[in-house]
Amino acid sequence: SFAAVGGDIDSIPSSLANLRNLETLLVKGLKGKKVLLPESIWRMTSLRHVHVKNNASFTLQPKVTGIGFQLKNLVSLSVPSLIFGEDADEMIRMLPNLRELSCIFSKSRGSRDYYQFPRLEKLTQLESLKIVYSGRTIKTSPLNFPLGLKKLTLINFFLRWDHISTIGSLENLEILKLLSSTFEDTRWEMK
Fold this sequence. Notes:
13 strands; 32% strand; nine-stranded parallel sheet; two-stranded parallel sheet; mainly beta; 2 helices; 191 residues
């Protein structure tokens, strides 16, 4: 089953979870407006595709985390807005079978100009990944990606050559897009 919602909305009601057999959810808010998805979405175990345009935020309350709240059938998700750190890692743990992910990452307020890249290698089924960093380009810790990744897009990142070597080690990678990114050096050296 399929549901599409659009308009001047900033949140989706928790009663959405009453649609127990819903497999596809499309939400289109106004440009630049974030849409808050309800906590009850974590109980919608039939969901296979969730796409929110322009971007979405989730609530991760302590009572929702845990093995019983994994969306094991969800295979595509766009565009959650996540903060680097524990929330991003917890959300990744709750979406174990994602094949396509398009997301926006930002650093938390008050954090330094260095951030911990999320543990994406845990998404072992992931084939397509697009990450937009929202904010001024900042330095990152080592990158880690699932080994089966076929398509990778990174936007607005500061990339060191060890990051490029990590990307180069992805044996199944077919498409690579590095957009609006800053490189540490002007020479491209693959090892």
